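User: Could you check the structure of this?
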Amino acid sequence: MDFTPACYLQLLQAFRARRYTLLPFGDYMEGNQPGPLVVLRHDVDRHLEAALNMAEAEAREGLRATYNFRIPAFRRHADLVRAVHVLGHEVGYHYEELSACRGRASEACRRFALNLDLVRSVVPVRTLAMHGSPLSRHDNRHLWQHMDYRDFGLIGEPYMDIRPGELLYLTDTGRRWNDQRFNLRDHLGPVPGPAWSSTPDLIASIRAGQLPQQVMLNVHPGRWNPPGWKWMREWAGQWARNLGKLILKTTLTHARQHT
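Assistant: Sure, the predicted structure tokens are below.
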């Protein structure tokens, strides 16, 4: 059964069997990582309990990852965020100020500075990654046209600091692997990587040695649930969200063709 915790661990084990080093994004940005590697990253959009469960499972395997939390998590669930940090994982900031401010750049810049202070009052943070905000027409990465996150002592943002072709980007956005039909912004560069129909298919490619030496794996913890009602809820909810994304993407494409 796909998108279960057991399936996720099989995915990690497949990488380890091929002697990939799995590491957080901040460690990658610091460099000096020999051999094949996987930048292990999690964008926590919702379902924080699933993120903690995944963090605990990875810690039992001796693995460290980057967990990017949105601002409500730092405000309302600081203890859970701290628990992920105590397990040895890196905590990053999943920012969305530009979409939250409806494109008002000056307001978004002020809010980012205030939010980052709040974030760092909970745990140390050195990296960040934009939230895709698929229902907004504003791309949160455009915030950096008006300010520089490095001025805040942040060392990396994957959508800004990873060059196209530098590594293979794998994301489960849309509860699929690199399926661009349901992916509005979660990709690096203009050319997306190959797609796989299922996690077992991706695992087979890893075992066959068909992946490059450097990979970024972006896994959303809320999509991975044990068989049962939570699994069914996520499957049904993602199906509906994918339909909405497909309609939105078609509408935006049609609008661009007529402007």
